[in-house]
Amino acid sequence: MKAIDLWNNPVSNEAIIRARRAYYGSCSFVDDQIKQILDVLEKCGLSDDTVVIFTSDHGDMLGEKNLGYKMHWYEDSARVPMIIYHPTRYRSAVVNTPISGMDLLPTMVEIAGGSVDENWDLDGSSVLPLVNSKEPRTILGEYMGKFNMYLANVPITPP
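RE: above sequence
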């Protein structure tokens, strides 16, 4: 409970600010590293032959609602980035349709020009058709930690 319930022993505002600075500093560092990778691909003449995919497994509450870590289904810990980049193959777009980590394999298979075998028992699907979609989609989320299990099956409608 110490990890997920901070109401009984709240963290100071200063500690929350330090945690947020460290988190955002880490995000800036990752941004810089991605830029370096893209620069090397360009310098080596590989950018037209390379699809770069960036994602994460979770966010962090960073003191919002007096919570820390990732152990809740609030927006701050549940929403994560996913960037698929290729300079000529994909146009720049923001996709508001929710996706899941389960969609990574089918998406990468489609990007590589393959197709997922119909006999595979996969819960995910390629996200490429979602670029222009406004259809609602159900996302599964699971938290298994501290000997607890929480399963969310919540339909989310994109804006």
